Amino acid sequence: MSTILVTGFQPFGGEKINPAWEAVRALPDTIAGANVVKLEIPVVFGSGADAVSAAIDHIDPDIVLCVGQAGGRAKITPEFVGINYRDARIPDNDGNQPHAEKIVEDGPDAYFATLPVRAMTEAMNEAGIPAAVSYTAGTYVCNDVMYSMLHALATKHPNTRGAFLHVPFATEQATKQPANTASLPIEVMTRGLEVALAAAVEHEVDTVGESLGTTH
């Protein structure tokens, strides 16, 4: 049986929950015939990435999907690319706030996701779950984890495929946000993750159909 490692972050930025972890921990233990291992990781530069890397070394999964929150987005967004850059608008949960730093000093400028993010997005939309490919994972801890995870796979685990995915605010978080703030119920996020992971298991190569690119 193949193995999927799925990670979600602890709360940050004054929030009481992080829907990324709430959605991850509600996933079934088996998806598309693959065993699912779930891991909560800290919102801390370096430490979050180290926790993912240690889990990959220990579990040796076939697929890794790291999940984070992007409050303000209206859809579930698989990320296409992670960049070798840290620039924090707010401190992380340990008070670190790096500016204009590389994540891996001698690493490449960017890594592309090695999971089929287009197929994952299409599968979610077909299931009635709003999703879109994103071409920026930001410069905060989410991108730090995405880039570091893909670097670890490229350098130590070439047979493991990986990607990052962002979820919006949970419905209960939106009660404290402006009236036009987008959100999704955590149950919908969990279902989206399950559908996306099933598509990742099914598709070794990403789909090439209607363009999912952006103009801005």
From TrEMBL:
<keyword id="KW-0963">Cytoplasm</keyword>
<feature type="active site">
    <location>
        <position position="166"/>
    </location>
</feature>
<dbReference type="GO" id="GO:0005829">
    <property type="term" value="C:cytosol"/>
</dbReference>
<feature type="active site">
    <location>
        <position position="79"/>
    </location>
</feature>
<keyword id="KW-0645">Protease</keyword>
<dbReference type="InterPro" id="IPR016125">
    <property type="entry name" value="Peptidase_C15-like"/>
</dbReference>
<dbReference type="GO" id="GO:0016920">
    <property type="term" value="F:pyroglutamyl-peptidase activity"/>
</dbReference>
<comment type="subunit">
    <text>Homotetramer.</text>
</comment>
<dbReference type="InterPro" id="IPR036440">
    <property type="entry name" value="Peptidase_C15-like_sf"/>
</dbReference>
<dbReference type="InterPro" id="IPR029762">
    <property type="entry name" value="PGP-I_bact-type"/>
</dbReference>
<feature type="active site">
    <location>
        <position position="142"/>
    </location>
</feature>
<dbReference type="GO" id="GO:0006508">
    <property type="term" value="P:proteolysis"/>
</dbReference>
<protein>
    <recommendedName>
        <fullName>Pyrrolidone-carboxylate peptidase</fullName>
        <ecNumber>3.4.19.3</ecNumber>
    </recommendedName>
</protein>
<dbReference type="InterPro" id="IPR000816">
    <property type="entry name" value="Peptidase_C15"/>
</dbReference>
<keyword id="KW-0788">Thiol protease</keyword>
<dbReference type="InterPro" id="IPR033694">
    <property type="entry name" value="PGPEP1_Cys_AS"/>
</dbReference>
<comment type="function">
    <text>Removes 5-oxoproline from various penultimate amino acid residues except L-proline.</text>
</comment>
<dbReference type="Pfam" id="PF01470">
    <property type="entry name" value="Peptidase_C15"/>
</dbReference>
<comment type="similarity">
    <text>Belongs to the peptidase C15 family.</text>
</comment>
<keyword id="KW-0378">Hydrolase</keyword>
